[in-house]
Amino acid sequence: MGTLGIFASRFDVNTKTLEAYDEALRFIKKKEEIKKTPEVKANIDKILDVIEPILKNIEGNLSDSTAISDRSVLEIIKDRNEREWPTYKMKLQQLYSKLASNRFRLSKDDFRLLDDIADALDVECGNLFRRMSESR
User: What sign has the CA pseudo-torsion 88, 92, 93, 94?
Assistant: First the structure.
């Protein structure tokens, strides 16, 4: 597979993941308190599919995720939150724990974090698209 094919493949996968993440985030934003029903669990899992590989990377572990370019997304998040990186990492870990529990409420800060992750994934999709265009 040539360079264009690699970028196109990564772009396709990241775009599909971003769409699923965004859809799940919109679903969750409509809930006041979140209780794990099958529908809620399916949406939370879409969000965790993005957050989990990012956290693995933060912890220095290799992620086996094929859903996102987790290293690139993590670098985008780090660049945007450089000054408060230690606090940001802690908040992200707390959010992951909260999302993995059976019943919880999300705060405005939690939603800001979730939106920040979506923005970073969107930037990565844009970067991959640009690289595809340059490879032609």
Answer: positive
60: left (phi over 0), alpha (psi -120 to 50) or beta: left
Structure token pair of residue 33: 């308190």
The burial class, CB within 10 Å (0-12 / 13-18 / 19+), for 8 is middle
Give CA–CA dist 83/97, Å, rounded. 24
Taking each helix axis from N to C terminus, what angle separates 38-58 and 3-29, rounded to the nearest 10 degrees? 130
Which pLDDT tens digit goes with each residue over 67-80?
678 788 899 999 99
Planar angle of CA 96, 98, 99, nearest 5 degrees: 65
Q: Where exactly are the structural domains of the chain?
A: 3-135
pTM comes to: 0.89
The H-assigned helical ranges of the chain are 3-29, 38-58, 70-80, 85-100, 108-135
